[in-house]
């Protein structure tokens, strides 16, 4: 039988962009933004200097050196037994991130083939059975079943099924088999 | 009314990769491959030294300097009035091509926003109303209406609607409005 497909986001889902963003932003801005202080804020509220934020995101190696989210590697390896996994990451806004994202996946997720990596802008034409993402802008319009992965900016959103970590994501998906 | 969507391939459709490939391949290999000599051949027959071919495709600036296909710019500008255009290009196999493709589009097609650019491997999860591509591996499994753009390697394929150039593509698509 054909495996069901899952589109999995990178930033905030496989990669802990929050930690890296806080560190770089504070260093550049002299602020003391912390994980706790930004809970429930929109990204543009949490990192209010947009020019600085874009500068940070355009920095060489920013995306290449992101920490991996806890349990992400083992979870994808396990899910791959029963699902076809596609990595679907918004990246074309920041061209320097493109090759870095492919290299990052190659380092931590070498079992994901290049055929299954998609770097995009909008995710509106992505059609998979499930989409795991931290942004409403992607989940609200996805063609399959949306699964919201908890991030600071989405804790007050209640209209999607939520998973707080990779263990919960695997448990939910395996329930559907 | 929501505009119908078109996924448009880059290599062989917007960009004349055939001309560039022949030039680079012959220079590296001392061969005399020509447009005429490869008509109807599969890519692996036309460029039989696979290692050399991969080397050429991995060369810095190979994709950045591709010539634009005749009438492509004007055609996309015109189609954009009635359709939503997504550029969908297989690129993750060659990471050096990723940023080059975005820059190339920025130079020749500045009216295409980053939101509408998708760099992928397989196109199997792309869901648009139309897909314009030169490869059966993409068209055979696409979710919308496949439109085959003529290239040397597909001239003997007869199972898809064919357009030989951008003027024909526009004429067909505007007929469907």
UniProtKB/TrEMBL annotation, chains A, B:
<dbReference type="InterPro" id="IPR010708">
    <property type="entry name" value="5'(3')-deoxyribonucleotidase"/>
</dbReference>
<comment type="similarity">
    <text>Belongs to the 5'(3')-deoxyribonucleotidase family.</text>
</comment>
<dbReference type="InterPro" id="IPR036412">
    <property type="entry name" value="HAD-like_sf"/>
</dbReference>
<dbReference type="Pfam" id="PF06941">
    <property type="entry name" value="NT5C"/>
</dbReference>
<protein>
    <submittedName>
        <fullName>5'(3')-deoxyribonucleotidase</fullName>
    </submittedName>
</protein>
<dbReference type="InterPro" id="IPR023214">
    <property type="entry name" value="HAD_sf"/>
</dbReference>
